């Protein structure tokens, strides 16, 4: 059994980020053609595109502000022209900001999280779901976070945005499931990425002591779950919030 995404086209928003680039490589290694989205990292996007070509798939880069419906629609049209209709959407991009307490966090930070978590999800659905409905096949995979279940101090803006995203995805799963489209979320824990490897910060005893598996997960482990949910192996899974956190958070029944 293997994950086969041959002849599928996937869009990964925030593809040049720490997790995004590994998802991009992984999906390409499964045979998917890749639309590499970026907002400001054009050079990184071009480098990633050139790297992806080694998998023998098609890849192209596309810039858009995910908080703008007009720019997402324009990106969709460009992808259609260069790669064809998108089969799989991975919503990974999110605005970055400094975390602090609710009393200190600026209103603009809450707005940025709402725009890049909730509204990005809405805009991507509006832009890409109609073609999926027409073809009776599609995948939406949103990148959520274990923080949505933790609600720790200083997480409020991030949690508010990701919890709002969770609501959109659960409703979307019910609205478009009849068309053969699945809608799921992957919720990483505090994940080891290239930044950690470069800075030798892979280990955090204080964090790992609370994780049942006693370690941090890796970016590749996140990408593996994304690839699974994007594939036909997960054809009867929809509306799921899947923590990839070593048991650090556990949804209850």
TrEMBL record:
It comes from the Bacteria. GO terms for molecular function: oxidoreductase activity. SUPFAM superfamilies: NAD(P)-binding Rossmann-fold domains. Its EC number is 1.1.1.-. InterPro entries: NAD(P)-bd_dom_sf (IPR036291), SDR (IPR050259), SDR_fam (IPR002347). The keyword Oxidoreductase applies. It holds the Pfam family adh_short_C2. Keywords: Oxidoreductase. Belongs to the short-chain dehydrogenases/reductases (SDR) family. This is SDR family NAD(P)-dependent oxidoreductase. It comes from Cohnella soli.
């Amino acid at each position: 059994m293997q994950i086969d995404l041959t002849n599928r086209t996937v869009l990964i928003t925030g593809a040049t980020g720490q997790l995004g680039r590994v998802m991009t490589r992984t999906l390409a290694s499964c045979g998917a053609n890749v639309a590499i989205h970026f907002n400001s990292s054009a050079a990184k996007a071009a480098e990633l595109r050139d790297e992806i070509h080694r998998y023998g798939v098609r890849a192209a880069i596309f810039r858009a502000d995910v908080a703008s419906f007009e720019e997402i629609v324009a990106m969709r049209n460009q992808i259609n022209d260069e790669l064809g209709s998108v089969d799989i959407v991975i919503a990974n991009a999110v605005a970055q900001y400094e975390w602090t307490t609710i009393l200190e966090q600026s209103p603009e930070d809450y707005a940025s999280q709402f725009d890049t978590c909730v509204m990005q999800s809405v805009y991507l659905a509006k832009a890409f779901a109609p073609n999926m409905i027409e073809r009776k096949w599609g995948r939406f995979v949103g990148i959520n976070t274990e923080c949505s279940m933790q609600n720790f101090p200083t997480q409020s803006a991030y949690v508010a945005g990701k919890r709002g995203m969770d609501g959109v995805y659960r409703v979307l799963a019910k609205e478009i499931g009849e068309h053969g489209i699945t809608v799921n979320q992957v919720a990483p824990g505090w994940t080891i990425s290239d930044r950690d490897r470069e800075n030798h910060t892979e280990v955090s005893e204080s964090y790992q002591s609370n994780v049942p598996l006693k370690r941090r997960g890796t970016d590749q482990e996140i990408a593996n779950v994304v690839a699974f949910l994007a594939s036909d192996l997960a054809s009867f899974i929809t509306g799921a919030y899947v923590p990839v956190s070593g048991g650090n958070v556990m949804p209850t029944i």
